[in-house]
Amino acid sequence: MTGTAETRADELATIGGGVDFVTLEPIGPISVRVHGDSAVARVKLKFKVVAQGQTVQHEGWTTDQFERRDGRWQVVWSQTTAVPNNLDLFIQSLQP
Fold this sequence. Notes:
The chain is of the alpha+beta class and about 100 residues long. It has 2 helices and 5 strands. The protein has one domain (about 10-95): Nuclear Transport Factor 2, Chain: A (Roll), CATH 3.10.450.50. It has helices at about 10-20, 85-95; strands at about 20-25, 30-35, 40-50, 55-70, 70-85. Strands 1, 2, 3, 4 and 5 form a 5-stranded antiparallel β-sheet that branches. Strand 3 (about 40-50) and strand 4 (about 55-70) form a beta hairpin. It starts with 7 loop residues before the first helix and ends with a helix.
């Protein structure tokens, strides 16, 4: 959630308790490009999260890379980039 690479365990810990996603909704169409057994999906989202006791609302872009493995699509990489509307509050929410 801070722009650094995270392990699967780190990501699950964030989703499981460090950050409370109050709302997470798409605000535009999902764009998908497929090439063989790989696909990339991108969507603009509206977030409302509680992190470190601070409520932050902003927009952002999420891009996910998928691979087809044994006939099933699996996310193998994901990147979310915030577009904060209150940069100071957003930075404060990331502090330990």
